[in-house]
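Friendly challenge for the regulars: who can give me the structure tokens for this chain first? No prize, just bragging rights.
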Amino acid sequence: MLRRLAVATLDANWEHDHTVPSRTLYPHQWSWDSAFVAVGLAHVRPERAWRELESLFRAQWADGRVPHIVFNPRLPVGAYFPGPEFWASERAADAPAALTSAIVQPPVHALAAWLAYLRVPSDAAHAALRRLYPRLVAQQRYLATRRDVGGGGLACVVHPWESGLDNSPAWDKPMAVVPADAAVMRAYRRHDTAHAPAAHRPTDLDYARYVAIVASYRDAAYRDDDLAGRHPFLVECPLFNAAAGVAEHALARIAPLVGADPGPHRERAARITDALVRRLYDPATRTFQPRDLRTGRLLPARTVLGLAPLILPDLPAPQVEAVVAEARSARFGLAARMDRPLPSHDRTAPDFEPLRYWRGPSWMNINWLVRRGLLTHGRADLAAGLARSMVGLVAGAGCHEYFHPDTGAGLGSPAFGWTAALLLDLLADGRDPDAGG
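First reply, four minutes later:
Bragging rights claimed.
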């Protein structure tokens, strides 16, 4: 029954060559959503999995960036905020002909391509890998060169939206110094609060700051030179860079299949892991935390971002032990038997909000990544407990965008793409007791 629900959700969200996250709030193509959706589609619609990834990469910029939104040109102006008229990406010399945003999201795409190939290693999948490989390499090159603002070997995000965890408490300190007035939002019509209570979403002041950060980037024609001298938000994110490291590991597996050398990918993966430990691991708190490049300081909020480096297969044993201990603490509640998946923020913190977007709710994609990390580092017992809790969420509430971390109630948009896709991946994994293992 759950498998049928997931397949029906993905089929209903299919839009000629890609999947929309939902038919309510998100009518376009989102970058890391498409990667997660491809992982699920590989189990049931493998040809669509490759179309999903290739449609996204057709909108790749000349500099290698993969935009976080590819807009559907058939939709009317104002159908979504912020839409293409807000981004005005045509101001940038490297922008494609397609209508896109100008920022990126965590680079989980190479991992998705590798997993899709492993699921169905057909001639068609091999041909798709050959087409995607140079684009995936260009994506990684962009992040490693244009975005290494701190000079320490890590990519920085230039907007909270790039992290994927839009209004996480992790960003409160750097966001607080972005000059903005909530009144600026009177010039725009937010669509998110028409589909979810305002108390569940970022505030108008948050959105005013989001707009101000984009305006700063847009005024510079989305160039990445001199970001340190002019851009108001520059942060090295643990999840974003862990994804970049895993991408290099995936590319090292893909490279021999397409006649390329895996060695440089392995070397870059090792450098990213080393930089993550050196720059973002805090020995005092024994967790990973983002670094604000404006101040040079680690940001104090303990969020699920700090658990993401577990997905790196070469994460050193002391950091693996520390991350697992953090996940098992009262802040997150990981256990071999658990009722609910990990929340997105420390549930013991005074600013924990179980209903507000990324400030407490549970999300399938982040839990899926952490589960992969647990399996990578030999913690099958904890991975099984996490998988059971994730499947239980959907069994109880359906394929929602996110979930109440205590009650399991579905929140945000219903019939959400990546929730359905990653449920399929869980159900197909023989190590998951809910898949008959």
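DSSP finds 16 helices and twelve strands in the chain. The longest strand covers residues 14-15. Your move, everyone else.
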